[in-house]
Amino acid sequence: MSELQEKFKSLLEQLEKHIKDKEEFEYVQKVFYELYVIFLDEYDKLIDESTKRIDSIVERYKVIENKLSILENTVSTIEKDIYIEDESEDEFEIVCPYCNYEFYADFSDGIKKEIQCPECQNTIELDWNDEDEDCGHSCYDCNHDCYNHNIDDEENESDDEDM
């Protein structure tokens, strides 16, 4: 038996010892039982209401958790779009000259002289424009100092024309 039932039974026994009139005891016992039933009904109602509230909270939590997950994914996507990750420093976009397929190649394990196109499987020779080589064209923003070479060449040509 539960603790509440044990206490109820003990109280009835005490009442029976103190009330000598049988009819009076039966009346008190009847009222006591009614009070007990009323109490248990209210207790059950409170438990049901509490359970409903808890279920409602759990459902709202699930909705909020789902929204939070969607928000976290959106923020993560935005972060990837906005910020360059350190790992991407070793990734280069390559356009295959044979099939025009665009892909990214990871060179974190070192620079390669050639790579295979994942689409057409042709081997692509990679030209890294090494700094010690002259690129052979007139540009003023490359690391090869072409601009200065071209200015020198133009000055030499104008000197030759003056003569």
Describe the fold and architecture.
By secondary structure, the protein is mainly alpha-helical. The chain folds into three domains: 3-82; 86-128, no CATH class; 134-163. It is 58% helix and 10% strand. The protein has three helices and four strands. The chain has helices at 3-18, 22-82, 146-162, and strands at 91-95, 102-106, 114-116, 123-125. A two-stranded antiparallel ribbon has the order 1-2. Strands 3-4 form a two-stranded antiparallel ribbon. α1 (3-18) runs antiparallel to α2 (22-82). The longest helix has 61 residues, at 22-82. It is rod-shaped and about 115 Å long.
Short recap of the structure:
The chain is mainly alpha-helical. The protein is built from 3 helices and 4 strands, in the order ααββββα. The longest helix is centred in the first third of the chain and has 61 residues.
Number of domains: 3
Tell me about the largest β-sheet.
2 strands, antiparallel
Q: What is the end-to-end distance?
A: 123 Å
Computed structural class: mainly alpha
Structure summary, number of beta strands: 4
Poorly predicted runs: 147-151
Q: Which descriptor suits the 3D outline?
A: rod-shaped
State the order of secondary-structure elements, H for helix, E for strand.
HHEEEEH
The strand line-up of the biggest sheet is: 1-2
The residue-averaged pLDDT reads 79
Number of helices: 3
